[in-house]
Amino acid sequence: MATKSTKKNYIQATGRRKTAVARVRLIESKKEITVNNIPASQYWPSSTFASLYSEPLITTNTHKKYSATAKITGSGKQSQLDAFIHGLSRALVQVNPERFRPILKKKGFLTRDSRMKETRKIGSSGSKARSKRQSPKR
Predict the structure, then answer these.
(1) Among 42, 53, 87, 92, which lies 20 to 30 A Cα-Cα from 76?
(2) Digit-coded pLDDT (tens) for 78-110
(3) Which SS3 state, helix, strand or coil, does residue 86 take?
(4) Beta strands in 28-136 (DSSP E)
(5) Is-annotated flag, keyword Ribosomal protein (predicted)?
(6) Local confidence band at 4 (pLDDT 50, 70, 90 cut-offs)
């Protein structure tokens, strides 16, 4: 039995923020951006998120040429959006590094935000990292 050879017609990149991981595939088409098989406009319905998820494509003037699909896991919606932007920007750099890298680097889309939640400490009563037990008054 002969094996089929399928040509890869997409560019894949990974973006991260906190515990969110976005696997982004950049496709050469004019389709809508989808996230976890849902249109991005429905996945991030808030007006603050609406313009942000396509920002790397608009910045590089490729929003009419490329579309993207993404699988995102972990964290909350804001961190997932940041991870998606990071992954989409990294995929665009793979397309044309000389042209897109300086533009996206200047906007800060290629920088991995390394801030993470501080871990809990032993002896703390609450669920936070720096919470302490209240000392007795007398």
Answers:
(1) 92
(2) 999 999 999 999 999 999 999 999 999 999 999
(3) helix
(4) 34-35, 38-39, 67-73
(5) yes
(6) low
Nearest to 18 by CA among 72, 83, 70: 83
* Domains of the chain (ranges, CATH numbers): 10-107 (3.30.230.10)
Dist. CA 84–CA 17, nearest whole Å: 9
The token duo for 102 is 């300086």
E strands, the chain, in order? 10-17, 20-27, 34-35, 38-39, 67-73
Q: What is the DSSP letter of 83?
A: H
Say if residues 112 and 87 touch (Cβ distance below 8 Å): no
Parallel, antiparallel, or unpaired: how do β-strands 34-35 and 38-39 relate? antiparallel
Nearest-Å Rg of the Cα atoms of the chain is: 20
**15-61 confidence digits (pLDDT tens):** 999 999 999 999 999 889 999 999 999 999 988 888 899 999 999 99
Q: Say which residue the tokens 């397309």 belong to.
A: 95
